[in-house]
Amino acid sequence: MQEYIFDFDGTLADSGKTGILATQEAFKDFSLPIPTSETVNYYMGIPIEVSFKKMAPHHSFSQQEFEDLMECFRMYYKKNELTNVTLFHGILTTLETLVQQSKSLYVVSSKNSIALLRNLENLKIANYFTDIVGSDQVHHFKPAPDGVLSLIKKYRLDPNDCIMIGDAIFDLQMGKAAGVHTCGVTWGAHDAQNLMKEKPDFLLNTAEELLSI
Question: pLDDT per residue over 33-46, tens digit each?
Fold first, then answer.
């Protein structure tokens, strides 16, 4: 494999607590039913533009109210990210080794590209990646293949040499839809049983295992 495409939340970084706190605080401010930690964690793999409406299925949002809710979430997220967003064990050394092996690394995330780049820089890993794609840079969100396909087109990548790595079923569905290899990781949002249902090419329990695929 030559081209490694990573999800961010739940794959590279443990940001679950930050996302949960920010979501619950925002929903509280807007007098919406507060979703459980398990619910927020499950939907972490898709953009808030989609997940928030799934977590408030009985509420009819005006466009302005929904935009205000998302902005409120982003405010709480930014407030908490410096202390709560951390790299998973083994990620840093794995990224370093892949780059030393002349592999090309990318990130396709459900996070807005501004926040994504800020998080990568805060974690001091931004320089390992050739490019990133955030939710604001695609027409269709995960599990649609837009993010991966944009990288394939921009860099003229061979799909047979690409692998999509993620902790959620949405990442695997996106990779399959884009025609690339897929790799589920068990240290994030979705457990091995749910990931296996998507029939990924690889299912890993540690970051270091990425070096042997």
Answer: 999 999 998 888 78
